[in-house]
Amino acid sequence: MPLKSILRLLWISNLVFLAIIGLLVFFVAWNIRNMPTLAAIDITPRQKLMVSSKFSLDHYRDIWEARILIDAPKTVIDEGPKVPADWHRELVQRSVKIEQILTTGYAFVSINNQDPVLLEALNPSNKIDRTRPWEVKLQGNKLTALEIVPGKGIRFRFDAGNKEVWLEDRNPRLTQPGKSEEFKSQQIAPNHWAVTSQDGTQLLQNGEQHLQALQPALEYDTEGNAIGIRIRGDISQSSDLFKYGLRKDDIVKSVNGSPLNSDQYEYFRQLVQTHRTSKKIEIELLRGQSTIKLTFDVIRKP
Which residues have C-beta within 8 Å of that of residue 181, sequence separation ≥ 6? Predict the structure, then answer.
């Protein structure tokens, strides 16, 4: 390239550079001119405020009279299931119902709404009885009937802890609490009787006479096996046999689980001797197509 051309290019470049510099200067000057004017700042020193550090006690009254509430974290203690203070009494009242106090020392009670059972108070004559007729079991607790008082109720004792509880008779049959009347044999429920030992003894003494009235005869099944004794004789409605639930054509199958497979008087006599000291007699019989159980609780004087 000729030298002239080079010099011309340098000259043109310088002119362009100067033009750019000039435009930048013009732009800055224009912006400064249009900026708002700042207010004057007063830097005149002022007098120092003197604050007294001494205050009267009233100044701090709001501090010592303020109620400070601190929410302490609540500790949750698992105490387990709550047990009533007198759970013994509540357990007895909830589980045992006095159906009837027969006489001093004897009562029919229902345990947990089941069929009534004969309960005896503990006394020297039944203390060694293996059937423990004075004991009641409630939710794993053993209770002993210490007293059965007509018109008042039953006094129980928990074997564990010897806690004693009275169960009140809410439907007393006697008008004067604590007064015992001579007990008489009576029906207490369908097919269920409470009989005195005296009445039971009298029935046994007249056993041969009653046996003749019954006119018993062996009854057999279709295979020729003896299933019981059929009553063929007429039973008067005024007789003791009718009163105690026996009817004509009943088939007596067993007495306290002992099967009746003979109609001989000697067999009946031996059967009576076997169960004469029992406190409960249960007779199972067939009446038509139905099986019936007659229950007799024997009340003996302590």
Answer: 103, 150, 174
